[in-house]
Amino acid sequence: xxxxxxVKGLYVWLPHGLQLRNHVLAIIRRFLEQAExxxxxxxxxxxxxxxxxxxxxxxxxxxxxxxVTHGGRDKLDVKLALRPTSETSIYPMFALWIRSHADLPIxxxxxxxxxxxxxxMTKPMIRLREVTTFKxxxxxxxxxxxxxxxxxxxxxxYKRFFDELGVPYVVTKRPPWDTFAGAEYSLxxxxxxxxxxxxxxxxxxxxxxxFAKVYDLxxxxxxxxxxxxxxxxxxxxxRVIAAxxxxxxxxxxxxxxxxxxxxxxxxxxxxxxxxxxxxxxIATVIKNELAAAGLRVHVDERDLRPGNKFYYWERRGVxxxxxxxxxxxxxxxxxxxxxxxxxxxAIAREVxxxxxxxxxxxxxxxxxxxxxxxxxxxxxxxxxxxTVKRMMEKRGGxxxxxxxxxxxxxxxxxxxxxxxxxxxxFDGTIPTEVCPICSKKAKANVLIARTY
Amino acid sequence: xxxxxxVKGLYVWLPHGLQLRNHVLAIIRRFLEQAExxxxxxxxxxxxxxxxxxxxxxxxxxxxxxxVTHGGRDKLDVKLALRPTSETSIYPMFALWIRSHADLPIxxxxxxxxxxxxxxMTKPMIRLREVTTFKxxxxxxxxxxxxxxxxxxxxxxYKRFFDELGVPYVVTKRPPWDTFAGAEYSLxxxxxxxxxxxxxxxxxxxxxxxFAKVYDLxxxxxxxxxxxxxxxxxxxxxRVIAAxxxxxxxxxxxxxxxxxxxxxxxxxxxxxxxxxxxxxxIATVIKNELAAAGLRVHVDERDLRPGNKFYYWERRGVxxxxxxxxxxxxxxxxxxxxxxxxxxxAIAREVxxxxxxxxxxxxxxxxxxxxxxxxxxxxxxxxxxxTVKRMMEKRGGxxxxxxxxxxxxxxxxxxxxxxxxxxxxFDGTIPTEVCPICSKKAKANVLIARTY
Lengths: 452, 452
What we know:
Two copies of one chain form a homodimer.
Chain A: H1 15-34, E1 38-39, E2 45-47, H2 48-51, H3 55-61, E3 66-71, E4 74-82, H4 87-97, E5 106-115, E6 130-141, H5 144-165, E7 170-173, E8 185-192, E9 198-208, H6 210-214, E10 218-220, E11 226-228, E12 230-237, H7 239-248, E13 254-255, E14 265-269, H8 276-292, E15 297-299, H9 306-315, E16 316-317, E17 320-324, H10 326-331, E18 333-338, E19 344-348, H11 352-378, E20 379-381, H12 385-393, E21 398-403, H13 407-417, E22 420-425, E23 444-449
Parallel strand pairs in A: 1-5, 13-16, 14-15, 14-17, 20-21
Antiparallel strand pairs in A: 2-4, 3-4, 5-6, 6-12, 7-8, 7-22, 8-9, 9-12, 10-11, 17-18, 18-19, 21-23, 22-23
């Protein structure tokens, strides 16, 4: 990513990063399409009157919306908001599309750029003024239970998605004071940065009938009555890519899971005196062989020392390197080096394709296991305030704390520990301990962490 | 496309249209990547000071740029332009990337949304305030000749691209008064709408060193000198999709070339009394067979009359329909119907895959031939003013007119005929006639048309 663009919070995607992004997007698109979501594309600009219809929603966004006020030399009659999210542009169109129960459910999504006037410190992929990659899904349903089921489906899709990326997560129900503006409740996925702070990487909102009432989304029942629809929406952004980088990267640089790596296998020929030709030829043959097997392969033929090439591709996170040197040619083999472990092994030419695929599979599951292991070690049960405080002080991960469910106690937990309440664990067990603030019986475990 | 979005010039891509768009984009991306262009993604917002550096360029755009002046409740210190095109955001970054001749050439492209404050009548895909789909490429080179060669490469890429879509075109060098703001010269691709007006669908600009001097793009030669680079840029937009629709569509609706059709083959089972099961089963078997062969197939299992289904898919331009009725089951065949000609034919089950692929290939070349034939008939040589005037009056296509090359005569041609001068024919022959305005020897043929 080029970080020197001369506006705070705006960055440039360079080719390798953009390819990574596109492989990640291909996965979520596939999962959404499999679950009958259809892709659409709405305008960026939202007229002020539409944008300001849902009062709650506006309160949540009014301090961070960019306004277009002029076109050419003219002052616009109606100011235009750069979408910070698209409920207010999409739902007025839903009003035109929904007539009868037969038009429901609607399940759509789009991948767009959105804008937030961030006043805090900005950071590539994490805190942006232009989020270049916002995947937002929006649904409408006949019944409340269908919207509930949709929330569950969305959580399952996101779980599969993060599992595919090897990004560990907790799912929580955000407390009321941290619910999406206009939603009945919000679920969120959080992962952990290496500094011990959590990063929100996905959200799922049950909107109930809030927006439906404001934008007049009604369907006619078979018996001729008119009811408001129930809605959900859910989103992820390029933070997901930051999460991948953080989950698997190390001091050298990127370490990418094979399924999203722009280059999965890099071949480095190691020429030796008077024998350049065979090494180069073999590299090309192997490249074509692996490419034909569906792998993304690159031969590094630059005029650089092998050591420099190794380092170059390691920094870029290429999962597997194949070296072809004099010994390899003699023995009809290649030397494979894993990016994640540095492990070296010789592979006989005749089993190359099978072995490479096996190795990539093993890298995938090892990256996954390692990331989850670290993550699990960072989620700790803590039923007394002292432990929670100490964890927050040294950014020691996520504390699982019994909670009575009262807002006052939740806010006290935040204030006294200097942590943020992520929310009740989704599908969590009911604790036997008491709330450390009021000493009443706990209703749920709540997760607390320092957050990004 | 949903055209009821409540802001002039902004529209919503619906799923079927968006898929069409994405197939079109996949083709141009493939061609650009094959020619060593790399995809990037730059921010939408351009600070006023950067935007206004190139004086010519600004004059070309100042009346149509949208300005963001506020973030939340704050007035911004520096106004931000919504990019109308990205020279002024990309080239300042080139200045950081280019150090030595070894950094050149640079060949990048991006697919982004751009904005124009259009005051004329807007139209979906053709005249937009948000162009949702702008593919712009930008290059930088050591030598003038390399930039010239790049212009040629760009023209070849676009020719292949339009050929792939079956969209006919003329390529001209725009007259100086219609050159891209900041370019030395501009080449353009124009196609013809059914109403006889031309539509500009692609442009290729040789920027010379104009932007390089303004944004200080210099490289160091091997001998330590510093020179400005030479640049080109070239773009297409969703107008290309309008062009596809216009080139092949008819009174029924869309008629899509198979390579970009979201659904290439639709299967319509025609059930008959007490025999629903076999028809449905065969439809599924055939669907899986054709999908496995790499085709985009859909079975229409809705509870509608076959006739309604036929019409539904014809309007959406699906190139080939396969019907499976009682006779077909009996004879172990399917009935194939071409969208473009309505031609019906029985295909034996055992040769289905081969025959379907053959038919799709024939549809592709027939669509292409028909579109080019019509187009060629609409480009007419005319060496006297009367003929040109009459052509423009009845929007009778493109007139090829001998021209002396003088601006005064060019503008007189436009004024007296009420047509627009597209420009000199690219790779055209030198005419033997005289310029109909000044009667001097013509230097080139110029194309004149009513334009969108």
